[in-house]
Write a structure and sequence with these properties.
By secondary structure, the chain is an alpha/beta fold. The chain has seven helices and five strands; from the N terminus they run βββαααβαβααα. A five-stranded mixed β-sheet has the order 3-2-1-4-5.
């Protein structure tokens, strides 16, 4: 079993109501059945509905217009991501900080008419961490890192950096995570 700790960044605006959000980065860390980090995946994605990033989005994520302009679209990047995961050859669970990232993957897959079955098996690290760490409620990822005594490394709101930081929490409680009931 591999655990795919992943984080997405998506188009965003300071004010809501700009239409659908689109993934612009996938960052992921692969953890094997013994709890070791064995590989990483990072790719930018060219948005198609709103191809121009907002200034707010660039400031929040540090992802530039040039990064996404030079990237492939979601259909190609998601295929590369699935191949990296080993969807057709290995057992895996997708793990993200909450349910947003899984939902966004599904929305992007719908936009391109792609299969979504590979997205089903999932762990919400955020919601299970709350129970494992015995906190009153789920926390933001940066707050959970601090509560666990970890330093937030890299740039917050960058997919690969957030995936690496989530992996710290995941590995601390390795062996205690359970697949989300609604996806099992």
């Amino acid at each position: 079993m591999n655990y795919i700790i992943f984080d997405l960044e998506a188009t965003c605006w300071e004010q809501p109501d700009h239409g659908p959000r689109e993934t612009i980065e996938i960052g992921a860390v692969k953890i094997d059945s013994s709890g070791r980090i064995v590989d990483e995946f990072q790719a930018f994605i060219k948005p198609i509905v709103h191809p121009t990033l907002s200034e707010f989005c660039t400031q929040l994520t540090s992802i530039t217009q040039q990064d996404v302009d030079q990237a492939a679209q979601f259909d190609q990047v998601s295929q590369n991501f699935k191949e990296w995961i080993g969807v057709d050859r290995e057992d895996y669970l997708l793990c993200s900080w909450g349910f947003y990232d899984r939902r966004q993957l599904r929305e992007d897959a719908d936009r391109f008419g792609l299969d979504k079955n590979w997205i089903n098996q999932h762990i919400s690290v955020k919601h299970q961490h709350h129970l494992l760490a015995d906190t009153k409620q789920p926390m933001r990822m940066d707050a959970a890192l601090a509560a666990e005594g970890f330093t937030l490394n890299g740039t917050h709101h960058r997919g690969i950096d957030d995936a690496r930081n989530i992996a710290k929490i995941f590995r601390k409680y390795f062996g205690q995570w359970e697949e989300d009931p609604q996806t099992a």
